[in-house]
Amino acid sequence: MDQHDWLAERFEDHRTHLRAVAYRMLGSFSAADDAVQETWLRLSRAETGDIENLGGWLTTVAGRVCLNMLRSRRSRRDEPVGAHVPDPVVSRENGVGPEHEALMADAVGLALLVVLETLAPAERLAFVLHDMFGVPFDEIAPIVGRSPTATRQLASRARRRVQRAATVPDTDLSRQREAVDAFFAAARGGDFDALVAVLDPDVVVRSDGGVPRPGASVVVRGAPAVAKRALTFAQPSALVRPALVNGAAGVVVAVDSRPFSIMGFTVADGKIVEIDILADPERIRHLDLSVLDD
Q1: Is 111-167 the same fold as 1-77?
Q2: Other Cβ atoms within 10 Å of 178 Cβ, number
Q3: Are 228 and 192 in contact, with CB atoms under 8 Å apart?
Q4: Phi, psi torsion values for 243, nearest 5 degrees
Q5: Is the pLDDT of residue 143 over 60?
Q6: What's the CATH number for 173-292?
Q7: Which of 3, 17, 39, 112 lies 20 to 30 A from 89 at CA?
Q8: Domain extents for the chain?
Q9: What is the pLDDT of residue 128?
Q10: What are the CA-CA distances from residue 117 to residues 27, 41, 58, 113 (Å)?
Q11: How far is the CA of 112 from the CAs of 4, 93, 115, 249, 260, in angstroms?
C-alpha cells in the first residue's frame, strides 16, 4: 500500500465524524459532503509527517472549511423569505440494533439546528466544536483568529442564545408520538378544538418550500393560527408515514406516492411546541429516504 492509499484509508476512518461536524455547522448534507471533500483535498496536499493527532487535525481543518463556507453564505445571502429548515435526518421509527442506538445518541433536533442558524459563523463554530465535540478552546482559537479566552466567550455567548431559544423536548418517544398522532387525527377530523388542545399556546411552525414552493415558506405562531393552517392544508388523500426526524417523532407525507413534505415535531410536556416542515421538492429529492422502504 502506497502513501496515498494509506492516507485515504485513514481518512475514511474519520469520514463519519467529519460529516457529523460539517452537518452541525452547515445544516445541509450536500454542503457537509463538500466540506468533507475539501478536507480530504487539504489532507492530500499536506505534509503529514508532522501530524501527531490525525483526527484532531482533520476536525480543525473541517471546522475551518465550514467557517469559510458559512461566511461566504452569509455575505451573499439575501434576506430569507419565510423560513429556512435544515436538512432533516430521517429514519425508521421501529429501528433496532446498534446503528439505530447510535443514531439516537447522536441526534440533533431540527429545532436546535434552526437556532444554530441564527448564530454568527464564529459563534457557531466555537459552540459546535467545543460543546458538541469537546474540542479544546486553544485548538479552536487559531481557526477563528482569536485568543482562547475570546473563543471561550464566543462559545459562552452562543450557549446562552441556544439555551434561551431551544426547547428541551420530552425524551419519551411514545409520548412524542402520542401528541403527533393526536395532531393528525384532529386535522383529518376537522376538529379545531382538539388541535388547539394538543398544541402549546406559543407553538411555532416553520415551513420551507424553497424556490419551487415559495408560498409554503412561512412562519406561523400561536395555537389558533397553527390549528387553522393545519385544517386548511389537511389532505385526506395524503399518506402520513411515521418516522424519526432527527431522532424525534415526525412524519413523511406522501402525495400520489411521492414524498411531499417531511415534518419534525418538538414535544414538551405532552404539547407540540415546534413543527419544522421541509416542503422543498428539490431538497427532498436529494435526501436518502430509502431507509423507510419496506
Answers
A1: no
A2: 16
A3: yes
A4: -155, 165
A5: yes
A6: 3.10.450.50
A7: 39
A8: 1-77, 111-167, 173-292
A9: 96
A10: 8, 27, 23, 6
A11: 38, 20, 5, 15, 23
Out of 3.30.110, 1.25.40, 1.10.1740, 3.30.1490, the CATH code matching 1-77 is 1.10.1740
Q: How far apart are CA 78 and CA 271, in angstroms?
A: 34
Show the cell assigned to 119. 448564530
| Whole-angstrom distance, CA of residue 166 vs CA of residue 260 | 27
> Is residue 88 within 8 Å of residue 250, measured between CB atoms?
yes
Q: How far apart are CA 126 and CA 139, in angstroms?
A: 10
Q: HEC states along the chain?
A: CCHHHHHHHHHHHHHHHHHHHHHHHHCCHHHHHHHHHHHHHHHHHCCHHHCCCHHHHHHHHHHHHHHHHHHHHHHHCCCCCCCCCCCCCEECCCCCCHHHHHHHHHCCCHHHHHHHHCCCHHHHHHHHHHHHCCCCHHHHHHHHCCCHHHHHHHHHHHHHHHHHHCCCCCCCHHHHHHHHHHHHHHHHHCCHHHHHHHEEEEEEEEEECCCCCHHHCEEEECHHHHHHHHHHHCCCCCEEEEEEECCEEEEEEEECCEEEEEEEEEEECCEEEEEEEECCHHHHHCCCCHHHCC
Highest mean pLDDT among 46-50, 93-97, 103-107, 246-250: 246-250
Q: Which amino acid is at 252?
A: V
Q: Which numeric CATH code is attached to 111-167?
A: 1.10.10.10
14 Cβ neighbours under 8 A, 6+ residues apart: 54, 55, 58
**20: its cell numbers:** 457529523
